[in-house]
């Protein structure tokens, strides 16, 4: 694939005299060695060499790309099969292929001061890397930080092949969500919805890009435990992404009424979240500061909650100054998307935050995952949400604020809402943006009609 060669060339130019070593990672076992978790190569490795098996390494040295692969053992042959042929791998990746046993010799010939290593998020894989290079890989090390910076500067912008892969992942994600919505009229539990989505994704050769969030407790932002029965008066929040066999993933959230019809209170909150989403996405374009989108959503939610009578006792300006809306919107407006649903967050804020920028310490704002100027080729999510979390309003640090500005009687009228989030995926184009996840019913009317047609 031409993109691998182009990525290697661009990365070599950015690295200068540095060589870069990237591990695919090691198998991780579940309780005992013979029961490994399904293996997925690290995203940085996939970006440079594709989806390979455990124990592989990519090395960029003196403008040459090398791929080191474990040789097939007799046990491998018996239990797993002969593995991939090397010739097609070399043609696909543009790498020179070597047996893994030769890697130590290559490393020994590189000046340690010129060798950067991408830290692996898995502890065991990082320990194996440390044994190989004689030091523990860390972004605190200037070499590793420079190597990571060069790589993330490439990965921030999806090339043509990455855009194609992401579109396939987003298409499959949409197909899975539609399968869930089709199953909703007959589903008995959250697990039934998960099964309907898993069927579509696995039949396409993919997997979930993260642990599915399918819950009637939408006020719990990342509730991954399944099994609640679907009660007619509840909303079902479905935050699920599909990952293709090549490793690229989508990330979409819908919030649907279990009964097929939103109550009046649920519709009010849903429409507020949808209006915020639409106004925010309309601003997506090159040159825009992504944090400005969070500020915009925060202001729109503040105004909307005040208009609904949920906020009282102050002005919009006062609510904004006191950060009151974060009691309902305690997360960021979105994040980068690519080979991971929160792309490159294994590098901490190195990817999400532009040089010199730090997280805003205010509640809610500190959860913003992306603070960069948008540019052509970036892929981001937009995912505003409102959550009704009584425990938050009673927490010692927020109790006084909530008592002053929240109308508790009015809040009781929204007791059946719990949580609403609407998330879609967008590519930043030269003049604006492109929605990568279309063709889903999104308005109250579209969703209710879609469900009604499938109740039969």
CATH hierarchy: architecture of the largest domain: Alpha-Beta Complex
How much β-strand is present in the residues? 5-15%
Query: For the record, what is the CATH homologous superfamily label of the largest domain?
Result: Creatinase/methionine aminopeptidase superfamily
Counting structural domains, the number is 2
Helix content: 25-40%
**Tell me about the biggest sheet?**
5 strands, mixed
In whole angstroms, how far apart are the ends? 47 Å
Strand order of the largest sheet: 6-5-4-1-7
Can you put this structure into words, describing what you see?
The longest helix has 24 residues, at 160-183. With 456 residues, the protein is α+β, with helices and mostly antiparallel strands. The chain is globular and about 70 Å long. The strands form six sheets. Strands 6-5-4-1-7 form a five-stranded mixed sheet. A three-stranded antiparallel sheet has the order 9-10-12, with helices on one face. It has helices at residues 2-15, 43-49, 74-79, 86-93, 103-108, 123-133, 142-155, 160-183, 190-203, 264-281, 290-307, 316-322, 349-352, 390-394, 399-405, 408-412, 444-455, and strands spanning 19-23, 29-30, 32-36, 57-61, 64-69, 96-99, 115-117, 207-208, 213-215, 235-240, 242-243, 252-257, 379-382, 385-387, 419-421, 424-428, 433-435.
